[in-house]
Amino acid sequence: MRTTFIGVGEAFDDNQLNTSLLIETAESSLLLDCGFTAPMGFWKAAAHPLDLQAIYISHFHGDHFFGLPALLMRMKQEGRTAPLTILGQPGVEAVVRQTIELAYPGSLAKASFDLSFMECSAGQNIVLGHMCLGFALSDHPRPCLAIRVDCGDRALFYSGDGGATADTAALAAGADLIIHESFTMDADTPGHGTVDASIDFARRAGARQLALVHIERDVRKYQNDQLQQRISLSQEPHVIVPESGDSITITSREGDNFTSQV
Ligand SMILES: [Zn+2]
Ligand SMILES: [Zn+2]
Questions:
Q1: Which ligand approaches the C-alpha of residue 191 most closely?
Q2: Which residues, by Cβ under 5 Å, contact ligand 2, an ion?
Q3: 262 pLDDT band (50/70/90 cuts)?
């Protein structure tokens, strides 16, 4: 199972694309979140962009789904014909259709491919190709469903936005890779994760690797030395701060393969 970091930034970062992850197995592909700026990274990083099977929207904040009109319109331009599934919280179909209609009125009716929608709820399991998906509510002002993706004996967890909860901790238990929103270094920002809390979360889950994403832009710019020092202190899990285009392949229990594009 391969994870490509399409973007790793928070909502309004001037250097980083919005956090978005492309999950690929031999049989399936799933994009996790698609904010305003994510499509730019998707077209650059995805080897087979038109083969994307599904998109999961963790919550309805613009930096997590306002990229859908641009992504879908370009797919139309590129001649996509295969159906595309969009997954998200109850009401996802109406939200997505309204968003695309606002951006490009009438375009969906003329699209060259069909959209289908699947609603997701906390505690539910959904089978998508060879992937099994699970969900839990995080602590965020807008309800956000963290997601777990299992494929065979490999599993990853992505927090979406928000601090950890007992439910997200239970969902993450035993995952090989945790990708967690870590907005601030250690300050307690209501409704968001922190670097320290994410490290503690991944350790408790028994994960081998933790990727910190959605880091506040000034932390990335001005506190990078402190950030690197903090993560270097963690032996287990191994902590990384990925850049757009980086990827991780979860191979087996023996070890993962991290590839940095920078
Ligand atoms: Zn966000
Ligand atoms: Zn949010």
A1: 2
A2: 61, 161
A3: very low
